[in-house]
Amino acid sequence: MSTPLAYSLTRYLAAKQSVDDRALNWQVWQCLVAALPRATAEQPLRILEVGAGIGSMVERLVGGDVLSYATYTAIDKAPALMAEARRRLAQWGGERGFQVDEGDHGQLHMRRAENHISAETETIDVARFIAREQGRRTWDLLIGQAFLDLVDMPTTLPGLCSLVRPGGLLYFPATFDGDTVFLPEGDAELDRTIKDSYHQIIDQRVLDGKPSGDSRAGRRLFAYLRTAGVDVLAAGSSDWVVFAGANGYPADEAYFLHDIIHTIDMALTGHPQLDAERLCAWVAQRHAQIEQGALLYIAHQLDVLGRVTAPVGERQDSKP
Predict the structure, then answer these.
(1) Spatial contact of 1 and 37, defined as CB atoms under 8 Å apart
(2) Cβ(87)–Cβ(135) under 8 Å?
């Protein structure tokens, strides 16, 4: 495909779904499935997903027959994404034989034989959600996909853990862990400077006056979980690897790559360590390589599954 003239977060997340499906660590996924408590109509599984985007994880869990009876709370701070999640999930469920009923306040009920999934979506910042729900509700499973590298883990993770019941699970797939590769290699020094500068931007990101990023979140997550009273049950790599085959890039992954290059361009424009003309030429070259089906993109990520073991009041507050 040619380089897009405009970019959409909704389309990016939809294009990313096939990349994630291929990348998610199967061993960690199987451990998650085995560790989930048995759900019944009377005691459905309670799941909370933070940064839920357009609801791809709900589709993945239901489509993989992981969920039979569940109440699923999905939150994201972007109203457009939550609206798209409800639209997509209603369409997805209807196409797969579910009776789909939409309720008030972002609720969606999907029913068929031996299945009842009640999904609730809410547009809210995760910090506000934690402050509101602490001491009120707990969940059996908390999911944060590609999420922890976008927040300040030392302050956010303990709050997330407090929302999980003792013995409950935390699943953090696709947590970025500090390496990005674009091939074919061009000017090696320029490639390295762009990568390092972009990771620096992630590390220095501030939203609402608070730190909001960590380019090595995957590896650092282990120590933060230990401090929060969480045992790691399984972990493994979930690298994005995107390349063109004989028929080009799969699904909408060419758009996904164009969006990645555009994001780097927007983040690094005006960066003091980068010459503007060289950056512009690098961006144009990478877009052209996507159009030609020549670009290979790799991003190193980790999937981590943990179980809450320590009561909230007994968890350590110090940083690891």
Answers:
(1) no
(2) no
